[in-house]
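Q: Could you fold this chain for me?
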Amino acid sequence: MKGEGKSNNYGPGGGRGPGSGFAMGRPVEKATDFKNSLKRLMGYLKPHRAKLMMVFFLAILSTVFNILSPKFMGAATNKIAEGLMNRMSYFTNIEAAIERGADIEFIDQLRAQPVPGIDFNYIWQIVLVLIALYVISSLFNFATGYMMAGVAQKTVYKMRKDANAKLARLPLKYFDSHTHGEILSRITNDLDNVGSTLQQSLTQLITAIVTLVGVTIMMLSISPVLTLIAIITLPLSAAVTVAVAKKSQRLFAARQAVLGELNGHAEEMYTGHKEVKVFGHEKRSIDEFDEINERLYDAGWKAEFISGIIMPLLNFVNNIGYVLICVVGGIFVAIQRIQIGDIQAFIQYARQFTHPIVQTANITNIIQSTVASAERVFNLLDEVEEIPDKEDAKIIEFPRGEVSFQHVQFGYKEDNILIKDMNIEVKKGQTIAIVGPTGAGKTTLVNLLMRFYEIKGGNITIDGTDIRDLRRGNLRNMFGMVLQDTWLFSGTIRENIAYGRQSASEEEIVAASKAAHADYFIRRLPEGYDTVLDEEASNISQGQKQLLTIARAILANPAILILDEATSSVDTRTEVLIQKAMARLMEGRTNFVIAHRLSTIRGADLILVIDHGEMIEQGTHQQLLEKNGFYADLYNSQFTSSFRRLEGL
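A: Sure. Below is the predicted structure, expressed as structure tokens.
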């Protein structure tokens, strides 16, 4: 597991997710086929196009109202400046008349004129307009968020529903070739990423583009020269961003690699902590952790520092632009080319001008990461499904349990045939043992029987009917399974036993438990049959788990039983109980036993010896021993090793 990165607080693209301040410079995950994946994602949005149009329209209106605000504030500033200038002019004219010795009558006439003041009625009207603009903009913004949240969640709901339905139609080989974490990530992390982006980033992208266009128009309307000064700083900002981003991406990639190494080491040490303590490697483990942790610290602070200086550098460049705008704007005001309120409005627009550019770049990265997430979901949806049941598929109402393999061929890969020509005839009530070394193909035989995999040639029949002509649900209902790896879900013991037959009564559940020798230990538990099993059923022993699975199989009353020897990890007393329960379960059924300890299948009606996918021997226990072939060697080696272990006691 070393070097394998675990989940962290960053999204698939290395950022912190939409709407949370995506840091420039972090590595961005990209889709292999961006165009088609985006097209398919848009297909899921198509049923909501009316709402999307309304969302876009409201987002544009909200942004437009925000863009208009600085213009009105500039007009208010002009009116205040005009009033102040008129007032200053009034007193200046009187003083000038006095200084040049004007007639008293003329000076009195000047003084008799009303003193100019600020037109507060006009200012108050502008304040009311601004309040209205901000309120309307906020309402539109709220409506946009509300509607987009609904669209996003309905879209993800449909995608998650399609993914879950797809998983039910996928063959077993898909789950064998993909880890559980990888599959779960498709319908959790990836779809959450899609939902977050649809809910936030799309409207943010619209807002950013409209703001950029609107602000540019408003700046040009005030002064093309000042607009040019504001735009000149953009190439410098872009150069700074690109230079720092390239450096920080390398550092973030290095940090992620070391983080994966640290997570892998931690997982190894904590899952195998007993072995670490037994062999006295605690110090070595801690030293290795400290060494990796030191490298992670070194890579982490460099990555965060380099990424963190982007905004201060951009602010520095932008401030240079603001200084130039103020200097040139001041000159324009002095020569009465523009008014002072226009300068105030222009500076506000200049501050709004750079933000949507940075925001658009960030959202573009987020969308790339989101399309990559959607692509992984689409890859799942495009997986080859199980061959569907025939429209005229048959149902065996009362199965007897007669099984026949006729010239069966199978291979996991087209060019590698594992089972070449298998022929087996099993009568009702017979016990068939399947033996062979690890990887010989024992479990494959069972998977073919239940049609988890499709055969390449030949036929498998149950009661004379080809399994490919049966409904899969009906076929698998004929089987009961007791495996070495028990599976119990979080729920009561009663619910776990009744999983074999949901309609079972309390009396039937208890009867099945008694037949499986499980009733005694169940009643000794504090809550009896209502005892809730925790995650992985860790509050009962391994042997007790096995007895519950046997009770579940007894309750299901299958025609054909599949047993994977399940007594290797229990004590002798529990093993005796399990053997008795399994013997009770096997009565009157057709049984396929995957055997590991050959001493347990000496009474089987037929023993199939499989090696490298081929059935190399078959017969009873005695017949196979007399052949003195592969089975005899396998049996004698187990017997000899057991005898030697006894001698050593």
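A (continued): The domain at 401-478+561-570+602-649 is CATH 3.40.50.300 (Rossmann fold).
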